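Supplementary Methods. Inverse-folding protocol.

Structures were first reduced to a C-alpha cell string of length 378. This string, shown here, constituted the complete conditioning input.
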C-alpha cells in the first residue's frame, strides 16, 4: 500500500488515515467498553472521547482495573521544548487534566530539552532549556493540581533519570532503534539513545515510590513508537508496561498535517496577541468556495476546513451548536467570514485568561519542579 502520509515522533505529514494507524501501530480502538468505563467512573464523558479525538489505546482496561482494586495508577505525559506552546499541544493536556481531576491521580510531566537539542539542528541546549521553562508556564496555567503534578527537565533531573534510562538502554538494541525510528549510520548517538529517556519516565513513579504502579500516558498518536519500545522491555527490567490513550493531531491552519511550531503563521501560540490571533485565523484555509455566490449555491466543506476543525477539536464544546454550524455551512447559509470571527473570539477569550494564569505561574514554578536530591543521607 503506498504511504500517502507519514506519522513518526519527528515527522507528521499528509492526510492521516487514523484507522489505518491503529492497525500499523497495533493499538486498540477506544470502544464501547472503554467509553462505558469512563462514563461509569467520571460521571460525564469528555468531549474528546465523545468525538473520537482520543480514539486509540493500549491497556486502558488494566488502568480501570488497577483503579477499581485500589492499586491506583499515575499519569505521565510530556513535551519536547522546541519552541513556544501552541494550541495543538494543549489538546492532550486538556484531556490529561480531566483524568487528573476525575481520578485524583498524580501526573509526571517530562520536558525533553535533551531531545529537542539532539534532533534540532538549529537549537542550542540553552534554547531548549529556555523553552522548557516557557512551556512549564503553560502547563501550570492549565490548572493541574499543585500537590499532584511533578514537572522536570531531562537535563536537570538527570541523576534520577539517568539511573533508570541506562537500565532501559541496555535492553534496546541499535537494530530495534533503526527499525522503529528509521535511524541510520549518520544519526548522532544521542538521538539513538534518546528513547531510553522517554521510556524511563514510565518507570520513574515506581522508582520514587519504591513500589510498582502502572502509568497511563495520554499523548498524540505520533509518540506511540517510543512506547512500543518501552512496553517491550518493561517487564524484563521489573516494571509494568505503561498504558496509553492516544489522540489525533490538531490540523494546522493551512489545512492538513499537524500544527507545527516550525511554521509559525499556521499555528496559534499561547503567547500570541489578539492581533496575531485575528490575522492567523483570517488567513486560515477553509472549506469555502472561491466566491460568495458560489458558496451560497453549493455550500462549504467543513471536513477540510481548518476553522471548523479547531471548533471541533477544542473550541466548540456544545454538540448542538457544532451540528448546527455544520449543516449551515453545508447548505451555504454560513459564510467563512462568520466562522473565522466566531473562532477568533473563542480563541482570544481563552488565551487572554490563559495568559494571565501563565504570568502568575512564574512565581510558583518551583512548587511543581522535581529536583534531584544529591545529598548523601537517606
Ligand atoms: N517526545 C515528545 C515531543 O516531542 C515529548 C514527550 C516526552 C512526550 N515524553 C512524552 C509526549 C510522553 C507525550 C507523552 O513532544
Amino acid at each position: 500500500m503506498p504511504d500517502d502520509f507519514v506519522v513518526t515522533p519527528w515527522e507528521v505529514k499528509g492526510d492521516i488515515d487514523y484507522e489505518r494507524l491503529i492497525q500499523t501501530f497495533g493499538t486498540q480502538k477506544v470502544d464501547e467498553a472503554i467509553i462505558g468505563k469512563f462514563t461509569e467512573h467520571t460521571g460525564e464523558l469528555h468531549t474528546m472521547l465523545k468525538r473520537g479525538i482520543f480514539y486509540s489505546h493500549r491497556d486502558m482496561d488494566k488502568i480501570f482495573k488497577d483503579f477499581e482494586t485500589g492499586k491506583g495508577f499515575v499519569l505521565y505525559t510530556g513535551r519536547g521544548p522546541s519552541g513556544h506552546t501552541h494550541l495543538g499541544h494543549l489538546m492532550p493536556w486538556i484531556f490529561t487534566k480531566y483524568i487528573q481531576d476525575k481520578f485524583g491521580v498524580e501526573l509526571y510531566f517530562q520536558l525533553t530539552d535533551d531531545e529537542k537539542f539532539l534532533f534540532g539542528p538549529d537549537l542550542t541546549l540553552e534554547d531548549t532549556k529556555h523553552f522548557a521553562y516557557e512551556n512549564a508556564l503553560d502547563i501550570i496555567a492549565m490548572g493541574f493540581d499543585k500537590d499532584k503534578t511533578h514537572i522536570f527537565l531531562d537535563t536537570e533531573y538527570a541523576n534520577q533519570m539517568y539511573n533508570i534510562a541506562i537500565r532501559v538502554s541496555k535492553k534496546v538494541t541499535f537494530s530495534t532503534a533503526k527499525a522503529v525510528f528509521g535511524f541510520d549510520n549518520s544519526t548522532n548517538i544521542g538521538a539513538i539513545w534518546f528513547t531510553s529517556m522517554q521510556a524511563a519516565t514510565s518507570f520513574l513513579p515506581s522508582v520514587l515510590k519504591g513500589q510498582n504502579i502502572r502509568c497511563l500516558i495520554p499523548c498524540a498518536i505520533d509518540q506511540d513508537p517510543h512506547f512500543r519500545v518501552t512496553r517491550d522491555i518493561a517487564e524484563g527490567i521489573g516494571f509494568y508496561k505503561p498504558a496509553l490513550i492516544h489522540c489525533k493531531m490538531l490540523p494546522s491552519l493551512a489545512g492538513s498535517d499537524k500544527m507545527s511550531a516550525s511554521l509559525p503563521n499556521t499555528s496559534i501560540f499561547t503567547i500570541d496577541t489578539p492581533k496575531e490571533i485575528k490575522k492567523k485565523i483570517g488567513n486560515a484555509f477553509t472549506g469555502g468556495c472561491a466566491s460568495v455566490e458560489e458558496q451560497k449555491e453549493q455550500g462549504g466543506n467543513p471536513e477540510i476546513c481548518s476553522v471548523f476543525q479547531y471548533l471541533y477539536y477544542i473550541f466548540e464544546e456544545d454538540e448542538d451548536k457544532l451540528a448546527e454550524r455544520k449543516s449551515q455551512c453545508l447548505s451555504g447559509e454560513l459564510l467563512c467570514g462568520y466562522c473565522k470571527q466566531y473562532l477568533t473570539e473563542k480563541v482570544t477569550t481563552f488565551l487572554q485568561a490563559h495568559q494571565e494564569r501563565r504570568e502568575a505561574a512564574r512565581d510558583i514554578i518551583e512548587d511543581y519542579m522535581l529536583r534531584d536530591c544529591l545529598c548523601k543521607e537517606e
